[in-house]
Specification:
It is a single chain. By secondary structure, the protein is an alpha+beta fold. Helix content is 44%, strand content 28%. It has helices at 2-24, 53-60, 64-69, 75-88; strands at 32-39, 44-52, 91-93, 96-98, 104-108, 111-115. The strands form two sheets. The chain has a four-stranded antiparallel β-sheet with strand order 1-2-6-5. Strands 3-4 form a two-stranded antiparallel sheet. The longest helix has 23 residues, at 2-24.
């Protein structure tokens, strides 16, 4: 009987700790995946970057989250995305830095695919 009470108390303690931790801090891990391809026909480099909407949109601006979920980004949102990637991503070929130009995006569940 005492074993069961200790297990229940320990479990309740873990739940309370987890709940208070989640409310007080934002999860520190941000994940993304990028795919870079060279298109032989057009002789251009194409990049697709997948980001979690709830992690990425606050970095661009405070109201982009709602528009991103509706697949309705403004020109200001698109410019913010392009500026962010130009500042944070560096792609070099033969010691020459390439500039990124934001082309389009798509959304599936909570993942936004950004195409450059």
């Amino acid at each position: 009987m005492t074993f069961n009470i200790h297990c229940i108390l320990a479990f309740m303690g873990m739940l309370l700790f987890t709940a208070s931790t989640e409310r007080s801090t934002v999860h520190p891990m941000k994940l993304t995946s990028s795919e870079i391809k060279y298109d032989v026909a057009s002789k251009s480099i194409q990049m697709k970057c997948n980001v979690f909407i709830d992690d990425f949109t606050p970095v661009i601006n405070n109201t982009m989250f709602i528009r991103a979920k509706q697949v309705n980004l403004t020109e200001e949102d698109k410019k913010g995305i392009e500026q962010y990637f130009q500042a944070k991503y560096r792609i070099y070929i033969n010691n020459r830095q390439l500039s990124l130009s934001f082309k389009s995006y798509s959304i599936e569940q909570n993942v936004q695919s950004l195409h450059f």
